[in-house]
């Protein structure tokens, strides 16, 4: 008794004839008939009565079919697993993200992704952009979201987002009533600055120098969410990535447009060998969808 014989038997039971079973399995009718005869010889009893050229299942054949069908349920599961692996690799994906995107946007994207691909296991870690780059470059993660100050040597990359910077202002601050915060408004103000290596921080520093504006830096942090939390405590005002704003926003903070416009830039980075992975493309599509929502 072998798999081909059992497959022929199941096909006959499903379709009702050897000719239709041959069509289903894309074999010849003689091959189906031969497999059935060999199976009956191997198990020692008839599976069908031959009545006027038709195959009518015997009582023993019906009992045997029930057990064969249960075995094929496991086989169908294996086929489904193989299809998932073919389409989506190992069935798991490892994603690393900088904090500004990892707090709200990425969880929103993963919620959408999970609805479409509930069998894919996902690992998500939030870390600095330089750590994201290193983990992807060394193969520990499949996909990363990082700020544009990283070294892109050894990774594939594309622009993910370029959101305009906004200003986080304590609700009780004198500037909270302004519709727009201008660079000149920062002069002498307690200021929560992003880390010196941040590209937007460097652009702001150049703008401040050109404008002769000198805010009073009281805290430095690499995370926009931390800037918001510090602003909520009334420590100062700060420039942030809008994706880092808490959802729902903290009522102790007012978010204001900033002039002149400055933009953050985030990159999607990949291991070079992951570019062709369908699962990566599927997740990237969902990330882009969440970015626009």
From TrEMBL:
Looking at the keywords, is Transcription regulation present? yes
Keyword Magnesium assigned to the entry: answer is no
Which one Pfam family would you cite for this protein? Answer: HTH_1
Task: Select a single GO molecular function from the record's annotations and give it.
Answer: DNA-binding transcription factor activity
Give the SUPFAM superfamilies listed for this entry: Periplasmic binding protein-like II, Winged helix' DNA-binding domain
Q: Which UniProt keywords apply?
A: DNA-binding, Transcription, Transcription regulation
- GO BP terms in the entry: lysine biosynthetic process via diaminopimelate; positive regulation of gene expression
Q: Indicate the segments forming the HTH lysR-type domain, all copies.
A: 1-58
Domain of life, per UniProt, equals Bacteria
PANTHER family (UniProt xref): TRANSCRIPTIONAL ACTIVATOR PROTEIN LYSR
Tell me its family: Belongs to the LysR transcriptional regulatory family.
Q: What is this protein called?
A: DNA-binding transcriptional regulator, LysR family
Organism this protein belongs to = Pollutimonas bauzanensis
What lineage does the source organism belong to?
Answer: Bacteria, Pseudomonadati, Pseudomonadota, Betaproteobacteria, Burkholderiales
């Amino acid at each position: 008794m072998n798999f081909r014989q059992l497959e022929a038997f199941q096909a006959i039971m499903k379709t009702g004839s050897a000719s239709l079973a041959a069509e289903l399995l894309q074999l010849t009718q003689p091959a189906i008939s031969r497999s059935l005869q060999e199976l009956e010889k191997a198990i020692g009893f008839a599976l069908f009565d031959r009545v006027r050229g038709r195959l009518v299942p015997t009582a023993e054949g019906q009992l045997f079919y029930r057990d064969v069908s249960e075995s094929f349920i496991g086989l169908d599961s294996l086929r489904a697993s193989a299809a998932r692996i073919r389409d989506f690799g190992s069935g798991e994906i490892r994603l690393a993200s900088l904090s500004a995107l990892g707090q709200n946007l990425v969880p929103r994207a993963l919620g959408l992704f999970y609805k479409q691909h509930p069998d894919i296991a996902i690992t998500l870690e939030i870390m600095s952009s330089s750590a994201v780059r290193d983990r992807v470059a060394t193969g520990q993660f499949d996909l990363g979201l990082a700020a544009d100050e990283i070294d892109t040597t050894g990774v594939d990359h594309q622009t993910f987002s370029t959101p305009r910077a906004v200003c986080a202002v304590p609700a009780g601050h004198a500037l909270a009533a302004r519709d727009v915060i201008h660079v000149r408004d920062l002069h002498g103000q307690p200021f929560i600055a992003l880390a010196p290596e941040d590209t937007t921080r460097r652009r702001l520093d150049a703008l401040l120098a050109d404008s002769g504006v000198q805010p009073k830096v009281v805290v430095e942090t690499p995370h926009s969410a931390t800037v918001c939390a510090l602003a909520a405590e009334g420590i100062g005002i700060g420039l942030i990535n809008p994706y880092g704003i808490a959802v729902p926003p903290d009522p102790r903070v007012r978010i204001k447009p900033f002039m002149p416009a400055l933009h953050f830039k985030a990159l999607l980075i990949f291991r070079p060998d992951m570019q062709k992975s369908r699962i990566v493309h599927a997740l990237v599509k969902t990330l882009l969808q969440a970015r626009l929502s």
